[in-house]
Amino acid sequence: MSKNCEKSKSDIAKKNGHTYLQWIFALLANCTHLAYGLECGWISPTTKTLQSETSPSGYPLSDGQIAGVASSMSTAATCVVIMHSYIADIYGRKINIIIIAFLEALSWIIRIFCTSFTSLVIARVCAGIAAGGCYNVIPMYIKEISREDLRGILCTFSMVFQNVGVFIMYFIGAYLDYYTVMYVIVGLPILTMLGMILAPESPEFLVKQGKIDQAIETVAFVRGLDKDDTTVQTIVEVMVKDAAHFKSLPNLTLLSIMKNKIWRRGYILIMIAFTFYEINGAFAIITYASTVINSTGIEFEISPDIQSLSFPVVMMTGSLVLASCVERIGRKTLLIGAYIVSSLCMFGLAIIIILHNQVGGVPGWLPIILMMMVLAMYSGGVCPVTFLILTEMFNFQIRAKLMSLVVTYGWLLTAILLNIYLPLSNALGVYAPFIIYGFSNLGGVFFTIFYLTETKGKSDTQILQDLMRRKKTDNEISCIE
Description:
2 domains, globular, disordered C terminus
Protein backbone atom coordinates (compact mmCIF):
# COMPACT_ATOMS: atom_id res chain seq x y z
CA MET A 1 0.00 0.00 0.00
CA SER A 2 2.76 2.44 0.97
CA LYS A 3 4.68 1.62 -2.21
CA ASN A 4 1.60 2.38 -4.28
CA CYS A 5 1.17 5.73 -2.46
CA GLU A 6 4.81 6.64 -3.04
CA LYS A 7 4.50 5.70 -6.70
CA SER A 8 1.33 7.78 -6.99
CA LYS A 9 3.03 10.81 -5.44
CA SER A 10 6.00 10.35 -7.76
CA ASP A 11 3.72 10.22 -10.78
CA ILE A 12 1.89 13.37 -9.68
CA ALA A 13 5.16 15.23 -9.11
CA LYS A 14 6.40 14.13 -12.50
CA LYS A 15 3.17 15.24 -14.12
CA ASN A 16 3.18 18.64 -12.42
CA GLY A 17 6.89 19.17 -12.92
CA HIS A 18 9.04 21.51 -10.86
CA THR A 19 10.36 25.07 -10.90
CA TYR A 20 13.68 24.86 -9.06
CA LEU A 21 15.74 24.88 -12.26
CA GLN A 22 13.98 28.06 -13.37
CA TRP A 23 14.98 29.60 -10.04
CA ILE A 24 18.58 28.40 -10.34
CA PHE A 25 19.14 29.70 -13.87
CA ALA A 26 17.32 32.98 -13.19
CA LEU A 27 19.39 33.64 -10.06
CA LEU A 28 22.55 32.67 -11.94
CA ALA A 29 21.78 35.18 -14.70
CA ASN A 30 20.98 37.79 -12.04
CA CYS A 31 24.51 37.42 -10.66
CA THR A 32 25.50 39.82 -13.44
CA HIS A 33 23.31 42.38 -11.64
CA LEU A 34 25.11 41.57 -8.39
CA ALA A 35 28.40 42.40 -10.14
CA TYR A 36 26.81 45.55 -11.57
CA GLY A 37 25.76 46.61 -8.07
CA LEU A 38 29.32 46.10 -6.85
CA GLU A 39 30.48 48.32 -9.71
CA CYS A 40 27.91 51.00 -8.85
CA GLY A 41 29.09 51.07 -5.25
CA TRP A 42 32.83 50.98 -6.00
CA ILE A 43 33.42 54.71 -6.51
CA SER A 44 32.00 55.85 -3.16
CA PRO A 45 34.35 54.00 -0.75
CA THR A 46 37.31 54.05 -3.18
CA THR A 47 37.43 57.79 -3.89
CA LYS A 48 39.24 58.55 -0.63
CA THR A 49 41.89 55.92 -1.43
CA LEU A 50 42.39 57.10 -5.02
CA GLN A 51 42.82 60.72 -3.87
CA SER A 52 45.23 59.90 -1.03
CA GLU A 53 49.01 60.23 -1.11
CA THR A 54 49.23 56.43 -1.14
CA SER A 55 46.89 56.09 -4.11
CA PRO A 56 47.38 52.83 -6.08
CA SER A 57 47.61 55.03 -9.18
CA GLY A 58 50.92 56.40 -7.87
CA TYR A 59 49.54 59.91 -7.38
CA PRO A 60 46.32 61.42 -5.98
CA LEU A 61 43.57 61.66 -8.57
CA SER A 62 41.86 65.03 -8.95
CA ASP A 63 38.12 65.58 -8.59
CA GLY A 64 37.87 65.85 -12.37
CA GLN A 65 39.65 62.53 -12.85
CA ILE A 66 37.39 60.85 -10.29
CA ALA A 67 34.37 62.22 -12.15
CA GLY A 68 35.82 60.87 -15.40
CA VAL A 69 36.27 57.40 -13.91
CA ALA A 70 32.78 57.48 -12.41
CA SER A 71 30.95 58.69 -15.53
CA SER A 72 32.77 56.47 -18.03
CA MET A 73 30.59 53.49 -17.12
CA SER A 74 27.23 55.11 -17.91
CA THR A 75 28.64 56.77 -21.03
CA ALA A 76 29.85 53.41 -22.36
CA ALA A 77 26.56 51.73 -21.46
CA THR A 78 24.60 54.30 -23.48
CA CYS A 79 26.56 53.42 -26.62
CA VAL A 80 26.28 49.62 -26.56
CA VAL A 81 22.69 48.72 -25.71
CA ILE A 82 21.80 48.19 -29.37
CA MET A 83 24.91 46.02 -29.76
CA HIS A 84 23.71 43.74 -26.96
CA SER A 85 20.28 43.44 -28.56
CA TYR A 86 21.93 42.44 -31.84
CA ILE A 87 24.01 39.77 -30.09
CA ALA A 88 20.94 38.48 -28.23
CA ASP A 89 18.96 38.26 -31.47
CA ILE A 90 21.69 36.70 -33.64
CA TYR A 91 23.82 34.61 -31.26
CA GLY A 92 21.44 34.01 -28.37
CA ARG A 93 20.59 35.26 -24.89
CA LYS A 94 22.89 32.74 -23.21
CA ILE A 95 25.96 33.76 -25.23
CA ASN A 96 25.20 37.40 -24.50
CA ILE A 97 25.05 36.81 -20.74
CA ILE A 98 28.39 34.96 -20.89
CA ILE A 99 29.90 37.96 -22.68
CA ILE A 100 28.49 40.31 -20.03
CA ALA A 101 30.03 38.22 -17.23
CA PHE A 102 33.36 38.08 -19.10
CA LEU A 103 33.47 41.88 -19.43
CA GLU A 104 32.63 42.28 -15.74
CA ALA A 105 35.52 39.97 -14.84
CA LEU A 106 37.86 41.78 -17.25
CA SER A 107 36.99 45.10 -15.63
CA TRP A 108 38.15 43.93 -12.19
CA ILE A 109 41.22 42.14 -13.58
CA ILE A 110 42.41 45.33 -15.30
CA ARG A 111 42.20 47.20 -11.99
CA ILE A 112 44.33 44.56 -10.29
CA PHE A 113 47.24 44.81 -12.72
CA CYS A 114 46.89 48.40 -14.01
CA THR A 115 45.95 51.26 -11.70
CA SER A 116 46.70 54.41 -13.69
CA PHE A 117 43.92 56.89 -14.44
CA THR A 118 43.70 55.67 -18.05
CA SER A 119 43.52 52.03 -16.93
CA LEU A 120 40.76 52.80 -14.46
CA VAL A 121 38.75 54.52 -17.20
CA ILE A 122 39.27 51.53 -19.53
CA ALA A 123 38.17 49.18 -16.74
CA ARG A 124 35.03 51.22 -16.11
CA VAL A 125 34.30 51.30 -19.85
CA CYS A 126 34.42 47.47 -19.84
CA ALA A 127 32.02 47.52 -16.90
CA GLY A 128 29.80 49.96 -18.79
CA ILE A 129 29.72 47.76 -21.88
CA ALA A 130 28.58 44.91 -19.64
CA ALA A 131 26.05 47.12 -17.85
CA GLY A 132 24.55 48.10 -21.19
CA GLY A 133 23.22 44.56 -21.53
CA CYS A 134 22.12 43.91 -17.95
CA TYR A 135 18.80 45.70 -18.14
CA ASN A 136 17.60 44.26 -21.43
CA VAL A 137 19.23 40.85 -21.95
CA ILE A 138 18.87 39.50 -18.38
CA PRO A 139 15.12 40.22 -18.01
CA MET A 140 14.59 38.87 -21.53
CA TYR A 141 16.33 35.57 -20.73
CA ILE A 142 14.55 35.16 -17.39
CA LYS A 143 11.16 35.88 -18.91
CA GLU A 144 11.71 33.34 -21.70
CA ILE A 145 12.75 30.42 -19.45
CA SER A 146 10.18 31.04 -16.70
CA ARG A 147 6.55 30.15 -16.14
CA GLU A 148 4.15 33.07 -16.38
CA ASP A 149 3.39 32.92 -12.65
CA LEU A 150 7.11 33.10 -11.76
CA ARG A 151 8.55 35.63 -14.18
CA GLY A 152 7.55 38.60 -12.00
CA ILE A 153 9.33 37.51 -8.83
CA LEU A 154 12.36 36.17 -10.74
CA CYS A 155 12.80 39.44 -12.63
CA THR A 156 12.55 41.48 -9.41
CA PHE A 157 15.64 39.69 -8.11
CA SER A 158 17.66 41.79 -10.55
CA MET A 159 17.08 44.81 -8.31
CA VAL A 160 17.58 42.74 -5.14
CA PHE A 161 20.95 41.48 -6.38
CA GLN A 162 22.00 44.96 -7.52
CA ASN A 163 21.23 46.46 -4.11
CA VAL A 164 23.03 43.60 -2.36
CA GLY A 165 26.04 44.36 -4.55
CA VAL A 166 26.00 48.05 -3.57
CA PHE A 167 25.73 47.11 0.11
CA ILE A 168 28.58 44.60 -0.07
CA MET A 169 30.86 47.09 -1.81
CA TYR A 170 30.05 49.88 0.68
CA PHE A 171 30.80 47.47 3.52
CA ILE A 172 34.01 45.83 2.30
CA GLY A 173 35.22 49.04 0.66
CA ALA A 174 35.14 50.77 4.04
CA TYR A 175 37.25 48.12 5.80
CA LEU A 176 39.44 46.41 3.17
CA ASP A 177 42.27 47.87 1.11
CA TYR A 178 42.09 48.48 -2.64
CA TYR A 179 43.65 45.20 -3.81
CA THR A 180 41.88 42.97 -1.29
CA VAL A 181 38.54 44.27 -2.56
CA MET A 182 39.56 43.35 -6.11
CA TYR A 183 40.61 39.83 -5.15
CA VAL A 184 37.35 39.26 -3.26
CA ILE A 185 35.14 40.50 -6.10
CA VAL A 186 36.79 39.17 -9.26
CA GLY A 187 35.69 35.57 -8.64
CA LEU A 188 31.97 36.39 -8.90
CA PRO A 189 31.75 37.17 -12.64
CA ILE A 190 34.13 34.31 -13.43
CA LEU A 191 31.87 31.83 -11.62
CA THR A 192 28.82 33.37 -13.30
CA MET A 193 30.43 32.92 -16.70
CA LEU A 194 31.25 29.27 -15.99
CA GLY A 195 27.77 28.62 -14.64
CA MET A 196 26.08 30.14 -17.69
CA ILE A 197 28.05 27.80 -19.95
CA LEU A 198 26.04 24.96 -18.36
CA ALA A 199 22.72 26.85 -18.51
CA PRO A 200 20.20 26.24 -21.32
CA GLU A 201 19.52 28.66 -24.15
CA SER A 202 16.19 30.47 -24.22
CA PRO A 203 13.58 28.18 -25.87
CA GLU A 204 12.07 31.13 -27.73
CA PHE A 205 15.44 31.92 -29.29
CA LEU A 206 15.85 28.26 -30.25
CA VAL A 207 12.45 28.33 -31.98
CA LYS A 208 13.46 31.51 -33.76
CA GLN A 209 16.54 29.64 -35.05
CA GLY A 210 14.40 26.69 -36.20
CA LYS A 211 15.74 24.35 -33.49
CA ILE A 212 12.34 23.04 -32.45
CA ASP A 213 13.54 19.77 -30.88
CA GLN A 214 16.06 21.63 -28.71
CA ALA A 215 13.34 24.08 -27.66
CA ILE A 216 11.10 21.18 -26.60
CA GLU A 217 13.97 19.62 -24.63
CA THR A 218 14.72 22.94 -22.92
CA VAL A 219 11.11 23.62 -21.91
CA ALA A 220 10.78 20.06 -20.59
CA PHE A 221 14.12 20.32 -18.77
CA VAL A 222 13.48 23.60 -16.92
CA ARG A 223 9.91 22.59 -16.01
CA GLY A 224 10.69 19.01 -14.98
CA LEU A 225 8.29 17.49 -17.51
CA ASP A 226 8.52 14.85 -20.22
CA LYS A 227 9.15 16.02 -23.77
CA ASP A 228 5.83 14.48 -24.80
CA ASP A 229 3.89 16.27 -22.06
CA THR A 230 0.90 18.25 -23.34
CA THR A 231 2.03 21.41 -21.53
CA VAL A 232 5.46 21.30 -23.15
CA GLN A 233 4.03 20.64 -26.60
CA THR A 234 1.48 23.46 -26.25
CA ILE A 235 4.09 25.99 -25.12
CA VAL A 236 6.41 25.21 -28.02
CA GLU A 237 3.54 25.09 -30.52
CA VAL A 238 2.61 28.65 -29.56
CA MET A 239 6.24 29.72 -30.07
CA VAL A 240 6.37 27.96 -33.44
CA LYS A 241 3.10 29.58 -34.49
CA ASP A 242 4.41 33.02 -33.56
CA ALA A 243 7.71 32.37 -35.31
CA ALA A 244 5.95 31.18 -38.48
CA HIS A 245 3.76 34.28 -38.49
CA PHE A 246 6.76 36.58 -38.17
CA LYS A 247 8.69 34.73 -40.87
CA SER A 248 5.76 35.31 -43.23
CA LEU A 249 6.14 39.04 -42.71
CA PRO A 250 8.74 41.22 -44.44
CA ASN A 251 12.08 41.58 -42.66
CA LEU A 252 11.36 43.15 -39.28
CA THR A 253 13.19 46.45 -39.07
CA LEU A 254 12.58 49.19 -36.54
CA LEU A 255 10.71 51.07 -39.26
CA SER A 256 8.41 48.14 -40.01
CA ILE A 257 7.82 47.61 -36.29
CA MET A 258 6.83 51.25 -35.89
CA LYS A 259 4.37 50.96 -38.79
CA ASN A 260 2.41 48.35 -36.81
CA LYS A 261 -0.30 50.18 -34.87
CA ILE A 262 -0.28 47.87 -31.84
CA TRP A 263 3.50 47.74 -31.46
CA ARG A 264 3.81 51.48 -32.02
CA ARG A 265 1.28 52.15 -29.29
CA GLY A 266 3.09 49.80 -26.90
CA TYR A 267 6.44 51.42 -27.72
CA ILE A 268 5.12 54.94 -27.12
CA LEU A 269 3.55 53.89 -23.81
CA ILE A 270 6.73 52.24 -22.56
CA MET A 271 8.88 55.23 -23.60
CA ILE A 272 6.60 57.55 -21.62
CA ALA A 273 6.71 55.11 -18.69
CA PHE A 274 10.52 55.17 -18.83
CA THR A 275 10.51 58.97 -18.88
CA PHE A 276 8.57 59.09 -15.61
CA TYR A 277 10.83 56.36 -14.18
CA GLU A 278 14.01 58.25 -15.05
CA ILE A 279 12.81 61.61 -13.66
CA ASN A 280 11.58 59.95 -10.48
CA GLY A 281 14.54 61.58 -8.70
CA ALA A 282 15.70 58.61 -6.62
CA PHE A 283 18.87 58.08 -8.63
CA ALA A 284 19.87 61.69 -7.99
CA ILE A 285 19.55 61.04 -4.25
CA ILE A 286 21.68 57.88 -4.58
CA THR A 287 24.36 59.70 -6.57
CA TYR A 288 24.41 62.97 -4.63
CA ALA A 289 23.43 61.66 -1.20
CA SER A 290 25.82 63.82 0.82
CA THR A 291 25.05 66.91 -1.26
CA VAL A 292 21.31 66.38 -0.87
CA ILE A 293 21.61 65.93 2.90
CA ASN A 294 23.80 69.02 3.25
CA SER A 295 21.46 71.03 1.03
CA THR A 296 18.69 70.75 3.63
CA GLY A 297 20.79 72.97 5.89
CA ILE A 298 20.07 70.72 8.86
CA GLU A 299 22.91 69.53 11.09
CA PHE A 300 23.30 65.73 11.22
CA GLU A 301 25.39 63.59 13.53
CA ILE A 302 25.65 60.48 11.37
CA SER A 303 28.94 58.75 10.67
CA PRO A 304 29.81 58.39 6.97
CA ASP A 305 29.87 54.58 7.20
CA ILE A 306 26.38 54.35 8.71
CA GLN A 307 25.04 56.94 6.29
CA SER A 308 26.41 55.17 3.23
CA LEU A 309 25.20 51.76 4.39
CA SER A 310 21.68 52.91 5.20
CA PHE A 311 20.67 53.58 1.59
CA PRO A 312 21.40 50.13 0.11
CA VAL A 313 19.85 48.52 3.21
CA VAL A 314 16.62 50.42 2.60
CA MET A 315 16.75 49.59 -1.11
CA MET A 316 17.30 45.90 -0.38
CA THR A 317 14.32 45.93 1.96
CA GLY A 318 12.15 47.49 -0.73
CA SER A 319 13.31 44.93 -3.28
CA LEU A 320 12.60 42.00 -0.95
CA VAL A 321 9.13 43.32 -0.11
CA LEU A 322 8.43 43.61 -3.84
CA ALA A 323 9.65 40.06 -4.47
CA SER A 324 7.24 38.77 -1.84
CA CYS A 325 4.15 40.43 -3.32
CA VAL A 326 4.80 41.03 -7.03
CA GLU A 327 2.84 37.94 -8.11
CA ARG A 328 -0.07 38.72 -5.77
CA ILE A 329 -0.52 42.37 -6.66
CA GLY A 330 -0.88 43.80 -10.17
CA ARG A 331 2.00 45.67 -11.81
CA LYS A 332 -0.14 48.81 -12.14
CA THR A 333 -1.15 48.79 -8.47
CA LEU A 334 2.47 48.52 -7.32
CA LEU A 335 3.62 51.25 -9.69
CA ILE A 336 0.80 53.62 -8.75
CA GLY A 337 1.51 53.15 -5.03
CA ALA A 338 5.25 53.71 -5.50
CA TYR A 339 4.71 56.90 -7.49
CA ILE A 340 2.21 58.29 -4.96
CA VAL A 341 4.58 57.77 -2.01
CA SER A 342 7.56 59.12 -4.02
CA SER A 343 5.61 62.22 -5.00
CA LEU A 344 4.58 62.97 -1.41
CA CYS A 345 8.15 62.46 -0.16
CA MET A 346 9.66 64.71 -2.85
CA PHE A 347 7.21 67.50 -2.08
CA GLY A 348 7.95 66.92 1.60
CA LEU A 349 11.70 67.36 1.05
CA ALA A 350 11.13 70.61 -0.83
CA ILE A 351 8.87 71.94 1.95
CA ILE A 352 11.42 70.95 4.63
CA ILE A 353 14.20 72.87 2.86
CA ILE A 354 12.01 75.96 2.47
CA LEU A 355 10.80 75.85 6.08
CA HIS A 356 14.29 75.36 7.48
CA ASN A 357 15.64 78.31 5.50
CA GLN A 358 12.80 80.57 6.66
CA VAL A 359 11.85 79.51 10.19
CA GLY A 360 14.18 76.64 11.17
CA GLY A 361 13.41 74.04 13.80
CA VAL A 362 12.86 71.14 11.38
CA PRO A 363 13.59 67.71 12.98
CA GLY A 364 16.86 66.30 11.66
CA TRP A 365 15.46 62.79 11.18
CA LEU A 366 12.59 63.88 8.93
CA PRO A 367 14.47 64.46 5.63
CA ILE A 368 16.43 61.23 6.15
CA ILE A 369 13.18 59.27 6.55
CA LEU A 370 11.71 60.88 3.43
CA MET A 371 14.82 60.08 1.36
CA MET A 372 14.76 56.49 2.58
CA MET A 373 11.09 56.22 1.59
CA VAL A 374 11.91 57.49 -1.91
CA LEU A 375 14.70 54.91 -2.27
CA ALA A 376 12.46 52.13 -0.95
CA MET A 377 9.77 53.02 -3.51
CA TYR A 378 12.40 53.21 -6.25
CA SER A 379 13.92 49.80 -5.58
CA GLY A 380 10.65 48.17 -4.56
CA GLY A 381 8.41 49.56 -7.29
CA VAL A 382 9.37 52.28 -9.75
CA CYS A 383 12.52 50.68 -11.20
CA PRO A 384 11.87 46.90 -11.23
CA VAL A 385 8.17 47.10 -12.13
CA THR A 386 8.86 49.44 -15.06
CA PHE A 387 11.47 47.03 -16.42
CA LEU A 388 9.15 44.09 -15.77
CA ILE A 389 6.37 45.72 -17.81
CA LEU A 390 8.89 46.45 -20.57
CA THR A 391 9.87 42.77 -20.67
CA GLU A 392 6.28 41.54 -20.71
CA MET A 393 4.89 44.08 -23.16
CA PHE A 394 6.30 42.74 -26.44
CA ASN A 395 6.46 39.46 -28.36
CA PHE A 396 9.84 37.71 -28.31
CA GLN A 397 10.39 38.38 -32.02
CA ILE A 398 10.55 42.16 -31.50
CA ARG A 399 11.45 42.32 -27.81
CA ALA A 400 15.21 42.67 -28.29
CA LYS A 401 14.94 45.43 -30.89
CA LEU A 402 12.52 47.60 -28.91
CA MET A 403 14.18 46.97 -25.55
CA SER A 404 17.47 48.22 -26.99
CA LEU A 405 15.89 51.55 -27.93
CA VAL A 406 14.13 51.96 -24.60
CA VAL A 407 17.15 51.05 -22.46
CA THR A 408 19.45 53.30 -24.53
CA TYR A 409 17.00 56.13 -23.97
CA GLY A 410 17.00 55.35 -20.25
CA TRP A 411 20.80 55.44 -19.95
CA LEU A 412 20.96 58.70 -21.93
CA LEU A 413 18.26 60.34 -19.81
CA THR A 414 20.04 59.23 -16.62
CA ALA A 415 23.31 60.82 -17.75
CA ILE A 416 21.56 64.08 -18.70
CA LEU A 417 19.56 64.36 -15.48
CA LEU A 418 22.58 63.67 -13.27
CA ASN A 419 24.56 66.34 -15.11
CA ILE A 420 21.89 69.03 -14.72
CA TYR A 421 20.98 68.34 -11.08
CA LEU A 422 23.65 70.56 -9.49
CA PRO A 423 23.32 73.45 -12.01
CA LEU A 424 19.55 73.33 -11.52
CA SER A 425 19.93 73.47 -7.74
CA ASN A 426 22.35 76.38 -7.96
CA ALA A 427 20.20 78.33 -10.41
CA LEU A 428 16.72 77.84 -8.93
CA GLY A 429 17.42 76.82 -5.34
CA VAL A 430 18.13 73.49 -3.71
CA TYR A 431 14.41 72.83 -3.25
CA ALA A 432 13.58 73.24 -6.96
CA PRO A 433 14.63 69.75 -8.17
CA PHE A 434 12.45 68.13 -5.51
CA ILE A 435 9.40 70.11 -6.62
CA ILE A 436 10.08 68.98 -10.19
CA TYR A 437 10.52 65.38 -9.04
CA GLY A 438 7.30 65.62 -7.03
CA PHE A 439 5.30 66.70 -10.07
CA SER A 440 6.98 64.11 -12.30
CA ASN A 441 6.01 61.33 -9.88
CA LEU A 442 2.48 62.72 -9.76
CA GLY A 443 2.44 62.58 -13.56
CA GLY A 444 3.56 58.96 -13.32
CA VAL A 445 0.52 58.20 -11.15
CA PHE A 446 -1.98 59.55 -13.68
CA PHE A 447 -0.17 58.03 -16.66
CA THR A 448 -0.11 54.59 -15.05
CA ILE A 449 -3.79 54.77 -14.07
CA PHE A 450 -5.18 55.91 -17.41
CA TYR A 451 -2.78 54.60 -20.07
CA LEU A 452 -0.51 51.76 -18.93
CA THR A 453 -1.87 48.25 -19.44
CA GLU A 454 -1.71 45.51 -16.79
CA THR A 455 0.66 42.69 -17.83
CA LYS A 456 0.63 40.41 -14.76
CA GLY A 457 -0.07 36.78 -15.72
CA LYS A 458 -1.09 37.67 -19.27
CA SER A 459 0.03 36.09 -22.53
CA ASP A 460 1.39 38.11 -25.45
CA THR A 461 -2.01 37.82 -27.16
CA GLN A 462 -3.88 39.18 -24.14
CA ILE A 463 -1.48 42.11 -23.86
CA LEU A 464 -1.96 42.86 -27.55
CA GLN A 465 -5.70 42.87 -26.99
CA ASP A 466 -5.31 45.31 -24.11
CA LEU A 467 -3.15 47.59 -26.23
CA MET A 468 -5.94 47.72 -28.80
CA ARG A 469 -8.36 48.64 -25.97
CA ARG A 470 -10.91 46.07 -27.13
CA LYS A 471 -11.07 42.28 -27.17
CA LYS A 472 -10.16 40.43 -30.35
CA THR A 473 -9.70 36.81 -31.27
CA ASP A 474 -6.28 35.40 -32.09
CA ASN A 475 -7.15 35.42 -35.79
CA GLU A 476 -8.19 39.06 -35.69
CA ILE A 477 -4.97 40.02 -33.97
CA SER A 478 -2.94 38.05 -36.49
CA CYS A 479 -4.71 39.91 -39.28
CA ILE A 480 -3.96 43.25 -37.64
CA GLU A 481 -0.30 42.35 -37.25
